[in-house]
Amino acid sequence: MVHGPGTTEARSAGARIWLLALGMFAIGTDLFIVSGLLPAVGHDLRLSTAAAGQTVTAFAITYAIAAPVLAGVTSKVDRRVLLFAVLLVFAVGNALSALAPSFAVLLTSRIVAGAGAALFAATASAVAARIAVPERRGRALAIVYAGMTSAIALGVPLGNAIGNLSSWRWAFAFVVLLALITAVGLWFTLPPLPGSAGTGIRDRLTALRIGRVPTAMLTTTLWVVGTFVVYTYLGSILVTVTHASASDRTWLLLAFGIGSFAGVMAGGRLADRTSPTAGLTVTIALLAAVLAGLGIAVHSLPGAAVALAIWGLVHWSSFPLIQHRLLAIGGRNADMLLALNNSAVYIGQTVAAVVGGLLVGAGLLSRLPLAGAAFEVLALLALAVSAGAHRSATHPETEVAHAERQTATS
């Protein structure tokens, strides 16, 4: 029986989706909070800034590698049980971070937390799409990732405030609390959701042979590079180009966070009303234009505020469209593609940091927005190639079946 949007079942699904969003809020807070706490962490554990920064790298690399691997290994596990278990792992990782007496323990704790975060993010997206009514699937994906974007606007400032009032250790404890609340809530509200019976990691890796998958992952990576080649060094741009004070930078970043939240919600509605490929073409093209204009806008505070809000809006509106598209491409292996997509995001952030660093080292800080726009144009080209691969196939499921037959005969 299909339930309409106004039924009790649909409202129950909505409450569960918001719980998944709370879990993503915890992950986003954990992901972004560390950079602001690095000086205090380094001081307490007698580490250099560079050494303390490796905790961020450990989390990110683990997240990127663990997402597809763990998604394949746990494919047969009931989704309700899996979400509960990975949230406990994530909570344990952050508890270890809060109690870490040494750099070795702290680094280990970030690896544990990164593994839990990676699997939760991929599983939460797939579960949200599974329990939502079909006509609100894009909105459900948007709500889940609104938790992540909310962390940019609210979670990080809140975590830093906790750290400033007491200790950086209590900021990690705050993340533990969020994770445990989410775990308990999902355990008592989600029904049993069987995994993919009879499909191991080898079978699920057939998703990599679907014609559009490589270019879809490349689209995500280039889309991320375009934004993060600028965002990674945004603080330096606001100081050097905008001449913003510390208090000015706080509300300017808040403008980006608010725009991001609005964007991910708008992207979800767009995904439910239009072709994900068409919508993604529009949003990435707009993002290229916004980044091209950002270099001019940041020369004044009002201009920077407006540009950052629009930038967050346009960038994050693409994400639900990307996920909605992957659900259609992947079929029964869609959660594997969502996991791979999370890896593509972190690869993009790593590439962005390297490329941005090279440009800044060459004295081209003010040209970063133009570099970002160029990467978005490349993302559009990758999307066009991916769409062309789709037109060469009669139906998305045809590609899945073809990939599975190739594996079966190999």
UniProtKB/TrEMBL annotation:
Record has Phosphoprotein as a keyword: no
Membrane topology reported for the UniProt record: Multi-pass membrane protein
UniProt cross-references to InterPro entries, sorted A to Z: MFS, MFS_dom, MFS_Efflux_Transporters, MFS_trans_sf
Subcellular location: Cell membrane
Superkingdom of this protein's organism: Bacteria
TM ranges: 17-38, 50-70, 82-105, 111-133, 140-158, 170-190, 251-271, 278-298, 304-322, 343-364, 370-389
Gene3D superfamilies (UniProt xref): MFS general substrate transporter like domains
Keywords, comma-separated and alphabetical: Cell membrane, Membrane, Transmembrane, Transmembrane helix
Keyword match Ribonucleoprotein: no
A matching Pfam family: MFS_1
Protein's UniProt name: MFS transporter
Organism expressing this protein natively: Streptomyces olivaceiscleroticus
